[in-house]
Amino acid sequence: MTNPAHKKHDFIGRSVLSALAFLKDATLSEEYANRKGFLQSLDPRFKTISFLLFLVTVVSLKSIVLISPFYLLCLILALLSGIPLRNFLLRTLFFIPLFSLFIVLPTLFSIVTPGEPVWSFHVVGITGIITRPGLDGAVLFVVRIATSVSLVVLLSVTTRHSELLKVLRVFGIPQLFVLTVSMCYRYLYLFATMVENIFTAVKSRVGVVSHQRQGQNVVAWNIANTWNRTTQMSEEVYMAMISRGYTGEPRLLSKFHATPKDWLWLLCAVVICASLFYRGHTL
């Protein structure tokens, strides 16, 4: 008969490995960027400018009705770019929008946002009243966050990392910032792989840690060992990049080349943003 404690530890182990795999796939994989799709075919410079326009417009709008078309546009562009909707929604609606919902929860109640009552309840002798302004503001905040995150994720998964770094330099972002981002990107993948290997090695040699004292020792050893290895690895990664000629400037074999399709896309983006921005400030 299987020990329930073993099942619990196996569940924790699978969760840790799954979280690391999701991190590597969601932030470090260029699978979708290498596919043939609509956004992948656009010049990275024009694509980045258009998405910045979308983000600025979404942040400035104060109506859910006007923000919703941008989210619908994200879903359409994801389909046209070969990104499965299930994976896209999992990336964009699970972490940051859900976290923002917990942040905005206090503003639902009359003690923070007074106004017309919508619903009241009693819990342990405490009366809670949700107001109309609080509910409208919370929904607007979550929708705005979800749309903004969707735009950022859509841009990142359909553009190669090296191309994004080069676009930053084209727009005049300081070289030190670009170098730091590049180092963090390369080091993050190595760090995730190293933690995954350490966890697997400990499990294969120690097995299931059932005693609290033994578990604390294993965790403390792993923290110290990971710190030492990451410090050494950061130096090795940097020296390896320098030895291969990296100077902080992203270099690509292919050069950016604007086509009429890119100009037409940028024009459409400007028209969409200007129309909704004007509509939002005339309501």
3D structure, described in words:
With 283 residues, the protein is mostly helical. It has a domain at 7-35 and 160-252. It is 70% helix and 5% strand. Helix 2 packs antiparallel against helix 6 (132-157). The protein is flat. The relative contact order is 0.14.
Mean pLDDT figure: 77
> Total number of helical segments?
10
Q: How far is the first residue's CA from the last residue's CA? A: 67 Å
Strand content: under 5%
Largest β sheet strand count, sense and barrel closure: 2 strands, antiparallel
Strands, total number: 2
Q: What spatial form do the alpha-carbon principal axes imply?
A: flat
List the strand order in the largest sheet.
1-2
Rounded Rg: 24 Å
Helicity, in percent? 55-70%
**Poorly predicted residue ranges:** none
Question: Structural class of the secondary structure composition?
Answer: mainly alpha
Order of helices and strands: HHHHHEEHHHHH
